[in-house]
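Input record, target 12 of the design panel.
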């Protein structure tokens, strides 16, 4: 037999009969209720010497009922906890990545990217400040936009990206990289050299003491020389002065070096996207003098183990491992 809460009409009769001295057992009989239900009703609503009033008792019951019927946001507790956990450190996954990966980690489960964004910016979630974990960390949602990149000069003997083989653009062959630097404050010299492989989205991050060309060359050689020749085919970069020794880099690593057009940073959009994610760990203004190599290695490991939509929600390491297994079987 299912339990049914007292109605306002029943509470009004209870109030009337109790006022005339009718016992709980008799009231229960008249309302076709258990006398314990009547006793509990009176006990809950007369605490601290309060008088039993039907209207107040009804409001209290409705308030408690509303809380009990409250549904956890984001389709249920399991999804809710998954989203909250992976938005935050150490994951820092984007809503798009969470949406795509959740079906792999939790079977027969899905959630739309827009649903996650709506929750992040909802009034109920405002106190958690979840927008701070998004790549741009904006308190209010904004339309996508671009940014200008200054032209630092003409690189000697540079090959234009126009001459780069078309196969690089198709992302069907490993070994094609993009590189860029992430600067600290203008008053400090240390920076990060970031290189990203276009097929696997594999990342190599190296701290450099300054942005001189010889230092950039050393960082690239040190970071990429561990890979076999078939993983070192080309490098795309901008026209910054740190890339002026590209011919030395090319000779040491066996890479063909290509350069973007001035003010066309999107032509190396893969590494630009990685830089945006790295900024979540090292925001603008970070003094890299104070950042230890171990911290940089941790960020590199996180990025290489983060699922990506463009990789079918595999991680860069998983994508590379899958590619290697496929090559060995052919």
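The sequence produced for target 12 reads:
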């Amino acid at each position: 037999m299912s339990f049914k809460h007292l109605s306002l009409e029943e509470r009004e009769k209870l109030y009337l009969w109790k006022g005339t001295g009718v016992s709980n057992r008799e009231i229960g009989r008249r309302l076709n209720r258990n006398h314990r239900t009547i006793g509990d009703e009176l006990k809950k609503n007369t605490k601290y010497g309060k008088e039993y009033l039907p209207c107040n008792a009804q409001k209290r019951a409705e308030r408690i009922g509303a809380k009990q019927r409250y549904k956890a946001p984001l389709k249920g507790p399991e999804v809710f906890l998954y989203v909250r956990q992976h938005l935050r450190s150490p994951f820092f996954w984007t809503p798009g990545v969470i949406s795509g990966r959740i079906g792999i980690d939790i079977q027969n489960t899905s959630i739309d990217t827009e649903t996650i964004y709506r929750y992040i910016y909802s009034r109920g979630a405002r106190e958690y400040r979840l927008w701070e974990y998004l790549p741009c960390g904006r308190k209010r949602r904004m339309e996508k936009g671009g940014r200008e990149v200054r032209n630092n000069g003409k690189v000697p003997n540079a090959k234009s990206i126009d001459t780069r083989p078309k196969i690089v653009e198709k992302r069907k062959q490993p070994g094609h990289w993009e590189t860029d630097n992430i600067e600290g404050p203008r008053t400090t010299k240390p920076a990060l050299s970031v290189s990203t492989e276009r097929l696997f989205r594999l990342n190599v991050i190296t701290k450099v003491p300054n942005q001189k060309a010889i230092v950039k060359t050393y960082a690239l050689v040190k970071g990429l020389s561990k890979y076999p020749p078939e993983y070192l085919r080309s490098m795309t970069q901008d026209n910054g002065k740190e890339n002026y020794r590209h011919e030395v880099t090319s000779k040491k690593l066996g890479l063909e070096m290509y350069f973007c057009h001035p003010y066309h940073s999107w032509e190396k959009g893969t590494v630009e996207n990685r830089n945006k994610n790295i900024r979540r760990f090292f925001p603008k203004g970070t003094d890299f003098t104070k950042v230890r190599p171990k911290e940089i290695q941790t960020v590199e490991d996180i990025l290489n183990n983060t699922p990506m939509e463009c990789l079918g929600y595999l991680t860069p390491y998983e994508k590379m491992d899958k590619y290697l297994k496929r090559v060995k079987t052919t």
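The CA atoms of residues 103 and 109 lie 5 Å apart.
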